[in-house]
Amino acid sequence: MEDEAWQSVDIIRNNDGVPHVLQQKVLVYTSGVSEESAGYTKPTIEHRLVALQELTKFGDT
Q1: In terms of domain of life, where is this protein from (predicted)?
Q2: Cα–Cα dist 25/58, whole Å
Q3: Rounded distance, CA 30 to CA 40, Å?
Q4: pLDDT tens for each residue of 22-57
């Protein structure tokens, strides 16, 4: 079974000093027995920058 996820790699500040998280897409492989069973991840070449504030929101306050 194969799925996709984003793994956080590093925190980078842009030119204005605002922290962003560098993330890399990984392919997640599981044994197929259950979702909690052992598996492995394989990194891809796709990356993205996400504002740290977007990842740490706890609600609409």
Answers
A1: Archaea
A2: 23
A3: 7
A4: 999 999 887 666 666 667 889 999 999 999 988 887
